Predict the structure of Permease.
Amino acid sequence: MELIIEFFSALYNLSNAMALYIIFGLAIAGIMHELVPETLVTKHLGSESIGSVIKSTIFGIPLPVCSCGVIPLASSIKKSGASKGATLSFLISTPITGVDSILATYGMFGWIFTLYRVITSMIIAMLAGILTNIFDKEIINEKVVEEKKDSCCSSSNCSNESEVKQKFSFKKAIEYAFVNLLSDIAKPLLWGLIIGAIITISIPENLSAILIEYSWLSYIITIAIAVPMYVCATASLPIAAALMLSGVSAGAAFVFLSAGPATNTVTIGVVKKMLGTKSLYIYLGTIIFGSVIFGLGLDFVFDINSIDTKSLVHVHEEVSLLEILSSIVLWTLMLYFIFKPYFKKA
């Protein structure tokens, strides 16, 4: 009974720490979706230049799209003439962050950690794009199996190349944010919160001590879990927070935040089909080594300054009424979208 109380207490704290920022981020994401036409994505990414790689990386950073939802967008810009490097940079930078995830990261870890996450994801994405343009000149048929896309993301998250943007509609922006987008991330976000709460109460002290003493082991374990796993940038936050609260280093948690959202088994298959084997190796190698190197860098900085990584996680026992209401709204919407298919069957 005590364990159940601890679990729900951890779940309550994690939800309150994130909900307000997720809701605010979703609203901004909906507005961005209405304001930025998809044709703009495909316009500037055609040449095999560093400029196109930088543009695709910067454009991908704020987009609230997961590692599966980015597949049809990447396919679209590739078919429209984007270079392999620009396509790969977009594939990496877009799912690692997003305006909703950036705000939620700030709410849970503070601005220094958030800035570090955004900057390093840009570096990893740009490096992958530049290496691809240099070392992979192989021409691939422009066929990306639709089954891969459909098995990964819902139609609400898959872009339509022929879509023409109309004038701004606040109603459509809110509908996209709190219906289309939230319904797509509801299940992984729920599991992220649940897993985060379980980690918080279940990691034994001796395991944390081992992972702290042998930090390289924590990186290997995190990478092994993160690369094949499907988790969106926002849903990865409670898991990373729980790891840090349990004593795992900030660097190891960062590895999960970086590699987890950027990869999963479906995206790996699509990258191989769309860009070829060389690009796949560059894609995986850059994400894995980049995440580990920047994770080590984060731990080095904190070790030099003797900062307790647990203090980075902003989960407070005292919460405001607004945070509680935001948590209630978020959970209500999440559960509604998760159980909606079952209501229809009934």
